[in-house]
User: What shape does this take?
Amino acid sequence: MAKIAKKYLEVHNDKIVERGYHPERHMVSESLFAQSNEYMGARAYFDEGISAAKSLRGVYFNGIYDYSREVLNTGYKGIATRTHFMVNSHDIFALELVINKEKLDLNKVKFKDFYRELSFHSGEYIREFTWQLPTGNVKVRIHRLLSLTNPHLALQKISLSSKSTADVRLTFSTHNKLKQWGGDGYFNDLAIGKEHHFLVSETTFTKQKLYTKNDFKTTLPEKQYKKSALSGVRTRFSFTLMPNEEVIFTRYITNLTSREFPSFKRGLNALYTEARKYIKYDYEYYKAANIKFYAKLNAVSHIDIIGNDEDLQGVRYSIFNLNSTYHGYSPHNNLGAKGLTGEAYSGHAFWDSETYCFAYYLFNNREAAKDLLLFRYNQLAQAKARAKDLDCRGACFPIATLNGEEGCTLWQHASLQQQPTTAVNYALYHYYRVTNDFTFMKEYGLELLKETCLFLLDRGQFDHDNNYFSYYGVMGPDEFKMMVNHNAYTNVLAKFSFDFFLHMLKKLSNDPDFEKVKAKLNIHVDTLRQMKNASQKMFIPYDDETKLFEQNAGFFTLPHIEIDKIPDHEFPLYSNWTYDRIYRGDMIKQPDVLMFLFLFNSHYDESIKRANYDYYEPKTIHESSLSPSIHSIFASELGYNDAALDFFAYASRLDLDDYNNNTNEGLHLTSMAATWMNIVYGFGGFRSDGHLYKLAPTLPARWQGYSFRLSFPNTLLEVKFTTNELVLKVEGEPLKILLYDEEIEIVDTYAKALN
Amino acid sequence: MAKIAKKYLEVHNDKIVERGYHPERHMVSESLFAQSNEYMGARAYFDEGISAAKSLRGVYFNGIYDYSREVLNTGYKGIATRTHFMVNSHDIFALELVINKEKLDLNKVKFKDFYRELSFHSGEYIREFTWQLPTGNVKVRIHRLLSLTNPHLALQKISLSSKSTADVRLTFSTHNKLKQWGGDGYFNDLAIGKEHHFLVSETTFTKQKLYTKNDFKTTLPEKQYKKSALSGVRTRFSFTLMPNEEVIFTRYITNLTSREFPSFKRGLNALYTEARKYIKYDYEYYKAANIKFYAKLNAVSHIDIIGNDEDLQGVRYSIFNLNSTYHGYSPHNNLGAKGLTGEAYSGHAFWDSETYCFAYYLFNNREAAKDLLLFRYNQLAQAKARAKDLDCRGACFPIATLNGEEGCTLWQHASLQQQPTTAVNYALYHYYRVTNDFTFMKEYGLELLKETCLFLLDRGQFDHDNNYFSYYGVMGPDEFKMMVNHNAYTNVLAKFSFDFFLHMLKKLSNDPDFEKVKAKLNIHVDTLRQMKNASQKMFIPYDDETKLFEQNAGFFTLPHIEIDKIPDHEFPLYSNWTYDRIYRGDMIKQPDVLMFLFLFNSHYDESIKRANYDYYEPKTIHESSLSPSIHSIFASELGYNDAALDFFAYASRLDLDDYNNNTNEGLHLTSMAATWMNIVYGFGGFRSDGHLYKLAPTLPARWQGYSFRLSFPNTLLEVKFTTNELVLKVEGEPLKILLYDEEIEIVDTYAKALN
Assistant: This one.
């Protein structure tokens, strides 16, 4: 992993700061300083634009998507012909600033003292600089806020001050001409309001509607400015800036989408009335509300590290972004691989949501975790249609989706990867273990399990002589193996799915709602017998002697690829190696066997984990951003402390230091959950799949201490680890755990001195 | 193989005849009555067009192609982004016939006595009918001829006669608006000549040019008709048809392409001069020349069958089409899977050329066989570029091509199938065995072998422990297995390639041209050592006990698919089964292990062939039209006489009886070579890969006898088999052969009485 850090931000523990403008990192900063409030997200593009710099002006609304104009038709069955994607929508922050006839463009004007920050406390983004006009300097400060308590509202605050008099023309505009993937956009005008400054647009194919309205407040007395509505949706303020007087404009940007507002059917007046609800207070009010909102989430998700501020910033930045992007606002939302910060991966949610993000939410914000499950439940109809496309009964969850349909047009991923489906089952299992919420299982979980297990039953096959059940022609988590048979991960997760479903059904048989739920499930006893049989006969390729699981049939004899000898310029391999070559060796993209050993960690002996880590890790190139954290966690468990830190350093600052040279496209949102896991499951040694929660904290060499918190249904646990002492504190009910394999009960505080 | 015959043609042994018009088979007839002369091909569309009927007006020139407008970009390396295809070119036979103000359209006018035929003697296509006009009947007869001796020339002859007077307006037109794949065409106007009736067009991307000029002759004296040039390229003749007088118009259609004529650079006059060369004689002259041309080819390729006229017609139709489509006109031509009869398979040549067609030409028309090899040699530069795309040295021949570039945009075929490359080597080997032509090897063969072997060396890999060499991630001949390892066919053919190359090099070392050729080849001795090593360590998955070759790693334990239980409506599977499902079982599309057992038949014991046939045939659904013949050949050898006939019946009349319901798209040209092999290698028991040629004729139950001929460099052999007698006759030098495993020498005639 010869990845190089590109450092240009200041190190703080509660914000990120760029001091002095770095034009060569313009798009990277657009991603890093991006804001989200789950409902929407905006990249930190320059409000006024900039000539010459490569920029992605991006504003995205969760769940507002369209189908691609391009239709692929292979003529084969079961292959998605058309992708869908999160659309780049209204440019809500656009403005033009002209002072003394000079137009602001940081590529052309003279300026100094450029500074910007994104605060983890408030989510506020501030950009300021001194514009050196021939007629004297003007201090410009632009604030942006996406309200978390009032998510329809985005705020922009412009502050101007100068020592000399200046003629100012400030024009706010709203339009839907943002590019999609660098080309034509998908939003079309439906209506515009010049006087009331609003724009209603509609997506091309899905006909989703978006209403954006602006209201303005200013510190200037009404007589001292001229306000005019220009063509398009533009509102202009002209005024004279008096010496040593700060003038502030606050722009209230209210956004409504047809996704949640039936008002769209009732016409523009109804939208207007609705929009007015969200702009009652001033900027500071909404900022304070944001601070309170984040503080509440941080009461659990707060992490401290003593001894390395860069690590701390990386971790806090990750948590800040996770909390911003997804926090239980709606069970119709999910987390795209890049969150709401860019167009790469089309805004799609992957199985990352269940295998990486879910644990974070489960132990920090259980309502949000539940929403992730409900998101899948709400898309069960589409998953059933997809299973049918694949000649199976039941439900097959898509590899990449926004609306529940398969968004991946590459059959080799969409048709071969069973991970999305089994991941839903794993998340259900994880949720149930922690919450014991059988009501949820009865209402949603059992139905999900029934449909996914039906699919898994049909997609699997018995071998020629009916000796064992297995999956043929699959792609496991390691995407460098295609069309393989007997992928251990797939088989282990399918077996687990059948077992968990049957176990839940058994539990149901003693439940007062048994008859009702049974009738709803409507599953034949023969089918259950088949599932039991499939589980019992599941082929798990394990060698007792070496303790190795074979990743898939034939893996052990695959040609060896010396991954350390691959020249740096050949990465990423997908672009530089001929396509099929990637699949023809023992090189691994990301954890596969190690992935199920992680998910069911407590089920396997350390010796098994060691054997498989020692065998598979050296073959892994970590081309997925999700790979290093899982390896760091195993390295911690196995005492490979240097490796644990190496993997962690890369994972924690993946975007801040742009290790993969693609932060410009957006943040690796789901990897941020892996960063959290890296602390809690890795150094903290937390395990949540055994009969008791387990902790086995270790202290990375370059830290003097660290702490984190975990929220359980009736207990908040704080783990504090320093060079001298391990302190475990609970709020709420006492907690029984395994501490380094020793069972203890923490009633209030448990402290253990360390040598 | 529950395929159904659709019979509507008369059975003759030297032509096909449709009596009475069958509108529901309109497009099928367009294919069946299509004509080719290697230079060009034309479907038997109605010259005057027809309303309502589904028709494909198609005229194609060998090697005149274009790139598709559609560009696929997967973002992955080594995947062709754009296919190329044979373009549907000038509509050279278009005409309009108006008599007494009624326009000819067989969908609208009254007619009787419809008759058409295509003669195997001359290649002439005749269509005639009586047009029942209110003013009296008119006999219409339209002849078409593509000259084989003068391939730039197509002829059309219209004959009209009537018992009553009739006003006739006959308009001949030429245009380039034929549809491609049912959509927009790719030819654009460059120049038109109204008076001289010519059209020059150019393809959209490749900028290939086509010049078509018309000249007319008529039996009418000049005074009795009016000739006018109309807008576009249209020439009209208006005249009065007198009672009981036959009027004939002959249309000379001369075609020149920029492919062979530098005249295109010298302007229209030069083209005009060139075109005039080809129209010296009358229709009958060119027809007689065609008859002579076919007769010469038939002196070898003539086959007779006593006792089943349908079989005979099928076989002769196949030979007629092979001889028409490809006969040694140019080493820049090849045979597309559908010849020049339709747009399916884009006019591409596949490995069928070397593994199916090559044997036909080798023993019937050696110059044409040599051309097939030269075609590949001429495209070596493109094959080398393709190998580079695939991260290998050497040359990789494309799976589908016209111009030498990979025309298949499906990576799973184009990147995984090594058959096209190894097939070239097999054809070289076959050619050399029969001709002993070492001059050819020195000039072309060794270079081909060197480049293909380099590619095969790089594309193969050693297993993890360097125990064996093999091919990983391939698709063998059985296209129902994808991304498999250790495909026996691939490995056997690669091993053979290395061995043959090394053997030829050894032979070269005793040749006077040794130094010269060695310098040209410029291959390092280490590379040769590596090839030797790869051959010696080649993994050939064979089980001594069962005598089975395993088709690919894991085949024996694949889930079993009961192919007889697949409902008829699920065929073709590609359209009705979800894509990946096709690959997940022991169902086979076409011979794979049996294919190399066929190619190297003499190298394997009968017991091995029997074991593998018995094992693999029941798993084979013969979805490829090339499959049945190979199985028929094995069935003959193994004494499964019923099966041999069953497979043959299907193969011999595949198109005539439209077994696959797709003859409308064009003829299965390359399958026709398999039909020939089915007679000669199948019932004739001919083998050409052992140390002596072998014959082992058997008589199919429904025949009383059959005969065929084989041409060797200095000998023409005739094999005549009846119920009483086997007679072998040679012209030229005596021939030593194995007859039913007994070595005999045929000096003049060898006869053997049969009980």
Notes: Chain A has a mean pLDDT of 96. The CA atoms of residues 128 and 141 of chain A lie 4 Å apart. The longest helix of chain A spans residues 438-459.
